[in-house]
Design brief:
The protein is of the alpha/beta class. Strands 14-13-10-8-9-16-17-25 form an 8-stranded mixed β-sheet, sandwiched between helices.
């Protein structure tokens, strides 16, 4: 490969006890390093490690504008309730939009969007500001005030980021619910956040079909009477009932005088909440992670600039859904703060043909593409003829997030999409971390399947059950040892659970919920979740929520779900169901239960299969032992079953 910019290099000597893949190296060429913003990882890592607070303070000055400076960079007097940039005044929208209007970026494209059926819309920073400001004025006219929660439940259309930014502009807290979720999932999230306003669409296009979002929202709101107003974007033209006095069309509101584009950006405290985002943890209903204006903007801007090396004339495509944290940080806030051009696509990657993504890379001249292993595996199965038909020469860097990337998918992505020129940034992070945490940089030597090392200023470690660091090559609990600016501040309405879930197992360090290994080179290898979280196609789902959807069906007495390996999805959901006595097991009933979960939770939560059982393995205190179900399903040893009741 004479023209390769990243060179495979297997000269390392295998260490005993570490698998051979741990010695498959890819080294960036001098050209890649030359172009990169950070050329020497080691030097900056040393400086940041010696003074991580100082490192973040420098970034806050370099990348962000503040209305008033901070008095303290990091306040840890009330840990784990850390505060960053205390005393500073700011608003993330000022940095994402307002400040660019005074520069050459005013007429630069902020957002380019392509609909599934091929139509295009684009917004300069000037145009984006008008839309955001107008919708912010509309929200105000509907009575939304600083600190109020607004639920956003939409397809992937420009009005979604516009609604998010409009909330942030006036100090309201957005709570985006993924458009693939369904009635009960949406209802729980509206209820928990006590949102009086819901922003939705008539429907969303996906894979040539229409998802009836308004109908689902209506049903969820019927169960959550707190909602006073529903703003509906007309996207599909689907006939939808509009409730008099409650429901209003987006386009009608935006054409009224109340939609004033001269709307001031609220000046907020750095620690004021920006958004909440629901995610699943250990037990019970999903809880909302809270992020703030101040530290979050510093964290996302720094990581996007350093890791994805975003340049002013770049076209950046984060192919995630805006409804998940990846979309919040790296479709919306990060790229806009850096003044970049962010591309967003509405539909399915294979619609109408499996080269849709590659056609768009070519059409828009995308320079950096950030996606998930499940998408790569999904596209890989159609073969390389599809990407080979397209000109992908604009690509400079690639990214991966959401689950461990298997080395085969890594190599395919590297070879067929990046043409062996583009380093792959395998970024490990979480809804809770707000920003990339364990990640390479373009100048770093890569190993397929490893996220390499913690980002500047962070220290990670791997602990055993007792909280002692394990030896290199051994598996254990991944922990983070230092606070970081984009860290979650709490769980909405449940500070005790925040302390309990993240800071209690090993006092003083943040528990990620993942298991991992570190190799002899200090590289981290994520193995997967150690709690009751299942990653289906990179989407994070909790066993408890799927089980409660199953139990809400009249036939089900008890249910347990587990995640098992799946070739495309990474993991798939398998359900074990105990029926009520007057029901009999049948394939039809299994299918009915799958559909029921689909309509309560959403299609991604539909179990792969439903097995009827007479008994579920439980501890003597009555807790379902999913670990045992999982071992049995895979024909593996059941481990310690001394507490099993059967
Ligand atoms: C997993 C997504 C391996 C991990 C940004 C984590 C990963 C969970 C990677 C968070 C990666 C994310 N390699 N595993 N590069 N990135 N994960 O909150 O298990 O939806 O705890 O945030 O995804 O999922 P979440």
């Amino acid at each position: 490969m004479p023209t390769a910019d990243v060179v495979p290099d297997s000269s390392g000597t295998p260490a005993s006890g570490v698998e051979s893949q741990h010695d498959e190296w890819y080294k960036p060429s001098a050209g890649v390093i030359e172009r990169a913003y950070i050329k020497d990882w080691e030097a900056l890592a040393r400086t940041a490690d010696a003074d991580f607070v100082g490192f973040w303070e420098e970034r806050a000055k370099e990348l962000i504008d503040w209305h008033e400076p901070w008095t303290t960079v990091l306040d840890d007097t009330d840990k784990p309730f850390f505060k960053w940039f205390v005393g500073a005044k700011t608003n993330i929208v000022y940095n994402a939009i307002d400040r660019h209007l005074k520069t050459h970026r005013r007429n630069k494209l902020a957002l380019i969007w392509e609909g599934e059926s091929g139509e295009q819309r684009s917004f300069s920073y000037h145009a984006l500001n008008r839309e955001v400001s107008k919708f912010a004025s509309v929200l105000k006219a509907l009575g939304v005030k600083k600190g109020d929660r607004v639920t956003i439940y939409m397809g992937r259309i420009p009005e979604l980021p516009i609604a998010m930014l409009a909330c942030a502009k006036i100090g309201a807290v957005h709570s985006v619910v993924y458009g693939g979720f369904s009635t009960e999932a949406l209802h729980d999230r509206i209820e928990d956040s006590q949102s009086r306003i819901v922003v939705t669409c008539d429907g969303a296009f996906l894979n040539g079909k229409v998802v009836e979002l308004k109908r689902i929202a209506d049903e969820a709101i019927r169960r959550a009477p707190i909602v006073e107003h529903v703003v509906v974007v007309k996207r599909t033209g689907l006939e939808v009932p509009m409730e008099e006095g409650r429901d209003m069309w987006w386009h009608e509101l935006m054409s009224l005088p109340i939609a004033d584009w001269r709307c001031a950006t609220e000046i907020l405290d750095a620690e004021d909440p920006l958004y909440m985002l629901y995610t699943s943890g250990t037990t019970g209903k999903p809880k909302a992670i809270v992020h703030t204006h101040g530290g979050y903007q510093v964290g996302v801007a720094t990581t996007l600039k350093y890791v994805f090396d975003l340049k002013d004339d770049d076209r950046w495509w984060c192919a995630a859904d805006p409804g998940w944290v990846t979309g919040h940080s790296y479709i919306v806030y990060g790229p806009l703060i850096l003044g970049a051009t962010s591309f967003m696509y509405e539909g399915a990657p294979t619609y109408p043909y499996p080269d849709r993504w590659w056609a768009m890379v070519e059409r828009y001249g995308i320079n950096v593409l950030y996606t998930a292993p499940t998408a790569i595996r999904g596209l890989m199965r159609f073969g390389e003829a599809w990407p080979n038909r397209r000109d992908l020469s604009s690509l400079r860097l690639l990214g991966s997030v959401g689950e461990p990337i298997n080395p085969e998918a890594w190599r395919w992505y590297f070879k067929n999409i990046g043409k062996e020129r583009c380093p792959i940034m395998d970024t490990w992070w979480q809804t809770e971390t707000g920003m990339l945490m364990i990640t390479p940089l373009p100048c770093v030597n890569l190993k397929p399947g490893s996220g390499t090392r913690p980002f500047f200023g962070q220290q990670a470690d791997i602990y055993d059950e007792q909280g002692h660091p394990v030896k290199d090559g051994e598996e254990g609990f991944l922990v983070l040892k230092r606070p970081w600016p984009a860290m979650l501040r709490t769980i909405y309405g449940d500070p005790d659970r925040y302390v309990e879930q993240y800071w209690s197992k090993f006092p003083g360090v943040y528990l990620t919920g993942d298991s991992a290994k570190r190799d002899k080179d200090g590289y981290y290898w994520i193995i997967g979740r150690v709690d009751d979280v299942i990653k289906v196609s990179g989407y994070r789902l909790g066993t408890a929520e799927v089980e409660s959807a199953l139990v809400s069906h009249p036939a089900v007495a008890e249910a347990a779900v587990i995640g098992l390996p799946h070739e495309l999805k990474g993991q798939a959901i398998h359900a074990f169901v105990l029926l009520r006595h007057d029901y009999t097991a049948s394939p039809e009933l299994a299918e009915e239960l799958r559909q029921h979960v689909g309509s309560e939770m959403g299609p991604i939560a539909k179990p792969e299969d439903v097995k009827f059982v007479d008994q579920l393995p439980k501890t003597r205190s009555g807790k379902i032992m999913r670990r045992v179900l999982k071992a049995r399903a895979q024909g593996l040893p059941e481990g310690d079953i001394s507490t099993l009741e059967e």
